[in-house]
Structures are given as structure tokens and as C-alpha cells.
Design brief:
The complex is a heterodimer of chains A (113) and B (116). Chain A has 113 residues and is mostly beta strands. Chain A is built from no helices and twelve strands. In chain B, 0% of the residues lie in helices and 54% in strands. Classes of the chains: A mainly beta (113), B mainly beta (116).
Chain lengths: 113, 116
């Protein structure tokens, strides 16, 4: 079946540290891949996306590359800020009859000053 | 970017009453919308897929008579929690597909429901 696996959190970093949140997927077909961010008490916001292999999505200093060979879409940021503290969800979307967006379990990031 | 708006953001209702949550796509037409439920510190659980002009498709284990979903127009879907109970208290989030942009899915801000 289709699924998304994320690294468990929480991830605690100091400000300006390098961030990697791992995400791997299993899909029957060619999914689009997304990272969503949820700040405390808020809904989800689209952070970045990639629709085909080798695409790199980027936004607000975050990047993720669609790696078909490793079925991965790891989220990275070179220098995190306190304001990046949030929960990050990796998700895949298949344009099949169901049009479902399948989420990973989420990874909580806490950035300390 | 595309905007999806939910209303209300917060609602408190008495046990046994019904409450309606609206989800609107403000600047695009959405033939398909989704409703999710999120428990504290957990991921989102897809409840149902809402298609304009047709009945919603519910996920396994979701009571369709309790969570009524109506998608009356291309910009509005509603979720009605009927005969609410305290265990229905949760964060409900809707999303909508914007076609023509790689079929990107945008989310509403979410609605906190507390049943007392």
C-alpha cells in the first residue's frame, strides 16, 4: 500500500544548526511529494513540494529533493531559527481515483536560542 | 497562493447538540475537498473525501451519520458533527485541491471543537 514514514521526534536543535528530517515513502505509482508545517495552534501550511523525480522543492530556506531511487524526500535547512519550531509533516499524493493525501506521523522540531 | 478558509476557528457546544464547520476555497474552485481530524500531538486522520454534487466518501471507521458532509458548490464544503459528545472534541481541518498547479492541496486553518 501507500505510506509515508518520518523520523520520530522531537528534534531539538540550537539556533543556526543544520536540520535534516528524514522522510521515505512507499507508493504504487508516481506520487507528488509535499512537506507541510504546522505551527502551534494553527492549521497546516504548504512548505514545499516536488512533483517528479529529481525535482527540488524549496521555500523559506528549506529544501527537499525527490529521490525516486531511494524513495525519499528528506527536508533540510542550513541554519534553523527559533521561529522554525513547529511540527513538520511529509505527505504524498497520488492522482488515482481516490486523490488522497497520505501523511507521515509528523516530526516536532524545537529550536532553542 | 491559493487560500482555503474554515469557519469557525473555535467552537464550544453542549453535548447532544450539532455543530457545523464550513470550508471555503476563496480564490479557486475545488471539485474535491477533504476533511481531516487531528488528535493532540498526532498526525492527521483522513475522515472523508467530499466531491461537489455527490455523496462524500468516508474512510473506514468514520460514522457517516455522525459526521455529515455536504459539498454544495465548487467553493464550499461543510462538516456537521451531529449529536456531539465530548469524545468528538478535536481539531478538524479541511483541504481542497487546486487543479492546474500540479494538483496542489491547500489546507484551511483548522477548527477547534470542544464538546462540554
Amino acid at each position: 500500500g501507500n505510506s509515508v514514514t518520518q523520523m520520530e521526534g522531537p528534534v531539538t536543535l540550537s539556533e543556526e544548526a543544520f536540520l535534516t528530517i528524514n522522510c521515505t515513502y512507499t507508493a504504487t505509482g508516481y506520487p507528488s511529494l509535499f512537506w507541510y508545517v504546522q505551527y502551534p495552534g494553527e492549521g497546516l501550511q504548504l512548505l514545499l513540494k516536488a512533483t517528479k523525480a529529481d525535482d527540488k522543492g524549496s521555500n523559506k530556506g528549506f529544501e527537499a529533493t525527490y529521490r525516486k531511487e531511494t524513495t525519499s524526500f528528506h527536508l533540510e535547512k542550513g541554519s534553523v531559527q527559533v521561529s522554525d519550531s513547529a511540527v513538520y509533516f511529509c505527505a504524498l499524493y497520488l492522482m488515482d481515483s481516490s486523490y488522497k493525501l497520505i501523511f507521515g506521523s509528523g516530526t516536532r522540531l524545537l529550536v532553542r536560542p | 497562493g491559493a487560500v482555503v478558509s474554515q469557519h469557525p476557528s473555535w467552537v464550544i457546544c453542549k453535548s447532544g447538540t450539532s455543530v457545523k464547520i464550513e470550508c471555503r476555497s476563496l480564490d479557486f474552485q475545488a471539485t474535491t475537498m477533504f476533511w481531516y481530524r487531528q488528535f493532540p500531538k498526532q498526525s492527521l486522520m483522513l475522515m472523508a473525501t467530499s466531491n461537489e454534487g455527490s455523496k462524500a466518501t468516508y474512510e473506514q471507521g468514520v460514522e457517516k451519520d455522525k459526521f455529515l458532509i455536504n459539498h454544495a458548490s465548487l467553493t464550499l464544503s461543510t462538516l456537521t458533527v451531529t449529536s456531539a459528545h465530548p469524545e468528538d472534541s478535536s481539531f478538524y481541518i479541511c483541504s481542497a485541491i487546486q487543479g492546474g498547479s500540479g494538483n496542489t492541496i491547500y489546507f484551511g486553518e483548522g477548527s477547534w471543537l470542544t464538546v462540554v
